[in-house]
């Protein structure tokens, strides 16, 4: 799929991996709508890349519908969706203060897994009605999982299970949407430079980076965005979850 001139949606586009992806898509010629729970962050990125910002809670159906409608009115039917919105709280199932509240677990699932599904299904419903491109494609979806989906650490039970759900969604959605010319892939990043990690002391960041076999550093959001662009451009990539992690395998803690 040739990105130039196409409409794109990026959830969680106001910071981190989503921000870098929004910038990369815009640089490649896409018309980008940035969906983010934080409207100020979304607007700041949108102004920089000449896109539009939409405040959105991905776990809420009506909120997603309103955001996608606004994006469509501005840019036309979206052909590219990149789901980066997510939360990553750390909490043991049984901690010193007792068992994890069910609502805490539920919130992670609602944002990371249900939110991904919510935006994906509404994007696909619109894309299936669009005219096929010269390649036969109507759309491309890139979801975000995590290496924690495969070897989550202690304290990551909610996060790891939500991301494992995203991995499981990938092949089923790709198979279902194949007849409509919509591809679905997922990226499972390792330890990346995000706002959360940048808030750690430099020695802590260096230690995390050194745990990566090669290159022994934190991943850069631009490297995530580069893979997104490759997935969009490579028609044969479909139904696959790609680890982007420098060969790291997470230890139990």
UniProtKB/TrEMBL annotation:
InterPro entries the record matches: NAD(P)-bd_dom_sf, Sc_DH/Rdtase_CS, SDR_fam
PROSITE patterns: ADH_SHORT (PS00061)
Key words of the record: Oxidoreductase
Keyword Oxidoreductase on entry: yes
GO molecular function: oxidoreductase activity
Annotated Pfam families: adh_short (PF00106)
Similarity annotation: Belongs to the short-chain dehydrogenases/reductases (SDR) family.
Protein name: 3-hydroxy-2-methylbutyryl-CoA dehydrogenase
Organism name: Seohaeicola zhoushanensis
């Amino acid at each position: 799929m040739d990105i130039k001139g196409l409409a794109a949606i990026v959830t969680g586009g106001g910071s981190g991996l989503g921000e870098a992806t929004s910038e990369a898509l815009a640089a490649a010629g896409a018309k980008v709508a940035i969906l983010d729970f934080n409207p100020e962050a979304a607007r700041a990125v949108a102004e920089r890349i000449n896109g539009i910002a939409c405040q959105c809670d991905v776990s809420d159906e009506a909120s997603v519908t309103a955001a996608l409608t606004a994006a469509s009115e501005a840019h036309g039917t979206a052909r590219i969706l990149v789901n980066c919105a997510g939360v990553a709280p750390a909490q043991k199932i049984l901690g010193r203060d007792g068992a994890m509240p069910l609502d805490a677990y539920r919130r992670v699932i609602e944002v990371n897994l249900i939110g991904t599904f919510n935006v994906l299904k509404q994007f696909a419903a619109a894309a299936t009605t669009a005219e096929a491109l010269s390649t036969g494609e109507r759309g491309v979806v890139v979801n975000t999982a995590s290496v924690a989906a495969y070897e989550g650490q202690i304290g990551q039970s909610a996060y790891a299970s939500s991301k494992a759900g995203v991995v499981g969604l990938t092949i089923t959605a790709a198979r279902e949407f194949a007849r409509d010319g919509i591809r679905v892939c997922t990226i499972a990043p390792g330890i990346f430079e995000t706002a959360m990690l940048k808030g750690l002391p430099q020695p802590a960041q260096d230690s995390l980076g050194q745990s990566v076999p090669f290159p022994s550093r934190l991943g850069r959001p631009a490297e995530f965005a580069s893979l997104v662009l490759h997935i969009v451009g490579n028609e044969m990539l479909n139904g696959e979850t790609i680890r982007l992690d420098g060969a790291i395998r997470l230890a139990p803690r």
